[in-house]
Design goal:
Blueprint lengths: L3 H22 L9 E8 L5 E8 L3 H13 L1 H12 L6 E6 L2 H26 L16 H7 L11
Parallel strand pairs: 2-3
Antiparallel strand pairs: 1-2
Helix pairs in contact: 1-3
Length: 158
């Protein structure tokens, strides 16, 4: 069992090698410049690597990029094996990253919140306070006299 630092180093190396090979070494037109490698994770025994990727484009581009990555898997694994120099080259599994969809959902929610805030701001622009403008009670002059212990005539009570 390898330690986590070694697995992380191998994952970083795999990410760099696969990205470089996709950019310069693989001549598949389905991949082109549309594919971005976002993350790589390696199991503790260094036998399997999961490569996360995103594709710029629509669903058809994503499907063709997935097919292109599956067909280029052997070439990419060979490149990783040469660069890593390990006893066993990990098998590569490509998984489409859900990051863009999550980011789009968050952006939609933030836009909805901005619209709601703008609506509240419009509605409250001419509003008046339900009570006094200053909601805190302040002692009246009469209450101040009672507080010092004197009655209305100014005599102190016993």
């Amino acid at each position: 069992m390898a330690d986590n630092a070694r697995a992380k180093k191998l994952a970083d190396l795999i990410r760099e090698v696969v990205a470089e090979k996709l950019q310069r070494g693989v001549k598949d037109p389905r991949l082109g410049t549309h594919v971005t490698i976002t993350d790589t994770r390696v199991t503790g025994d260094l036998r399997e690597a999961t490569v996360f990727y995103t594709v710029y484009g629509d669903d058809e581009d994503r499907a063709s990029a997935a097919a292109g990555l599956e067909s280029a898997k052997g070439v990419l694994r060979s490149a990783v094996g040469r660069a890593a120099g390990t006893k066993f080259t990990p098998t590569l599994t490509f998984v489409a990253d859900a990051l863009p969809e999550n980011a789009k959902t968050i952006e939609d929610l933030l836009e909805k919140a901005r619209t709601s805030d703008a609506h509240v701001r419009e509605v409250s622009s001419g509003a008046q306070y339900a009570g006094d403008a200053d909601p805190y009670k302040k002692p009246d002059e009469d209450d101040a006299d009672d507080a010092d212990g004197s009655d209305e005539d100014g005599d102190a009570s016993a």
